[in-house]
Write a structure and sequence with these properties.
Layout lengths: L6 E3 L3 H4 L3 H10 L4 E4 L6 H18 L2 E5 L2 H7 L3 E4 L6 H8 L4 E6 L2 H8 L5 E4 L16 H12 L4 E4 L7 H6 L4 E4 L10 H13 L1
Parallel strand pairs: 1-8, 2-3, 3-4, 4-5, 5-6, 6-7, 7-8
Helix pairs in contact: 2-3, 2-9, 6-7
The structure holds ligand 3NM.
């Protein structure tokens, strides 16, 4: 069973104004041990270069790194895993590419999708958005704490990551509703002093 920390930060280059590597460093300074690199704007070549640098930083610090969307980049770099959306390569195909040891996560947006996902060979199922979010385009309706609880009940023992609008005020309630971990962008990353990312990460972890 995947060892999943309660806090699972996701990078955002536009929001933070920092490279993926720099974000990994700041999040790791604050205590994060698993980070997802998410990139929706760079070319694959540019993202590959950024992810390569971020992986160097992560490895030096003992942080595990998951690549959003791109199983090919995860494979080429030897990253720790991939996080797939509903329109990405199927999780089974990613498993064939990346092998048994890779972390494979799968995004879902409803109880029905989560049940379907739990039947696949994934290490965690993500459900979201839990609350309103402005970090994702077309996020779909928020499922709320009740949605998290319903998914937990429906998927049994499967590792469950909750995402969308989660901050240090509401994270404890999301875990109490049945999530094993909370995935977070904007409550950790913001433009300005990079040291703030470290401070926010520490405070967030203290709130759990
Ligand atoms: N995926 P924030 S919500 C990347 O519902 C992402 O699957 C979501 O950012 C989903 O913590 C989301 O700033 C954005 O709300 C999360």
């Amino acid at each position: 069973m995947l060892d999943l920390p309660k806090l699972y930060p996701i990078t955002d280059r536009r929001l933070s104004g920092l490279s993926h590597a720099e974000q990994v460093a700041r999040l790791s300074d604050g205590g994060a041990s698993l980070v997802q690199l998410r990139e929706k704007h760079l070319s694959p070549r540019e993202f590959y270069r950024e992810a390569e640098e971020a992986l160097r930083v992560a490895r030096a610090r003992g942080v595990r790194l998951v690549i959003n969307d791109r199983a090919d980049i995860a494979l080429a770099l030897g990253a720790d895993g991939v996080h797939l959306g509903q329109d990405d390569m199927p999780p089974g195909a990613a498993r064939s590419l990346l092998g048994d040891k890779a972390i494979i996560g799968f995004s879902t947006h409803s109880v029905a999708q989560a049940i379907e996902a739990a039947r696949l060979l994934v290490d965690y199922v993500a459900i979201g958005p839990v609350f309103a979010t402005s970090s994702k385009e077309n996020p779909g309706p928020a499922v709320g704490l009740e949605g998290v609880a319903r998914v937990r009940e429906a998927v049994g023992q499967v590792r469950l990551v909750a995402i969308g609008g989660i901050n240090e005020e509401n994270a404890r309630a999301v875990l109490d509703a049945g999530a094993d971990s909370v995935a977070v962008i904007s409550a950790l990353l913001a433009p300005g002093d990079p040291a703030e990312i470290t401070r926010r990460t520490r405070l967030f972890l203290d709130s759990l």
